[in-house]
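hey so u asked for the seq, here:
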Amino acid sequence: MLRVKKAIIPAAGLGTRMRSVSGGLPKEMLAVGSKPMIQHAVEMHVRSGIEEIAVILHPEKEIIRDFLEGKPLSNLVHDSRDRDFNHIRACLSFHFFYQINRRGVVDAALLARQFVQNEPFAMIMPDCILFSDQPFLGQILAHLPPQATGVIGFIILEKDRAHQFGNVGLLKVQPEKSPLYRIEELSDKASGSVTFSGQTHPKGFGGGVYTSDYFEYVSAASKGKGLELDDVPIHQEMTARGKLFGVLLEGKAFDLGTVEGYRAADRFRAETK
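ran it, structure tokens below
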């Protein structure tokens, strides 16, 4: 199995859809259960064997760095750090990079290119959470085909939960060796919640693991609209070249980038604690 020791966590975004519940905090500091979503993300990486994490921030979100480095927080912020998380932080090396102009996920990855060097790396969005026995990233790492440039996680989304997820990454997949699938099509990013015909649909979820060849696809990202460098065109180009695969994830997935998804995750956590 390919050894992956490095990860990138993009956390510079505006979090526009979450402003009604964030109270001015970065969405990554919102609690799911008793922990901020950024803590859930870091713990998942450590459980999956990651040793170094590049966190991409905006200067207005310095509180995330303070939290991860164990610095005192504002009296307005509930500090949920515990001894277990202090131990987890001690297992990691954090590297912080600043995305002054918020130009999307690919631009965030480019800031960490020297950190990645020529090694494989994980890049999973911190507002995508999977409650499962085996961590999100660990499930992907267990099924990395040698011919892949990227391996993403995906779920089978039920129509009655579609309103909780952003409108991106509907997939057409071909089975290889379960739970590994070859990605044959990946939909564009659009506004609003995801929609599809039928009762279920495969949907990309949260990001994945990539070889350093990821950066050779960056020109594809410029095909998107405006100045944002989005990762959807990169995934689509990998798909066209037969280099993108998916692992069907086991567990309960939530998109915390939507108010509906965040509230559903918090309820689920409280009910299953």
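Residues 16 and 218 are 25 Å apart (CA to CA). DSSP finds ten helices and 13 strands in the chain.
lmk if thats what u needed
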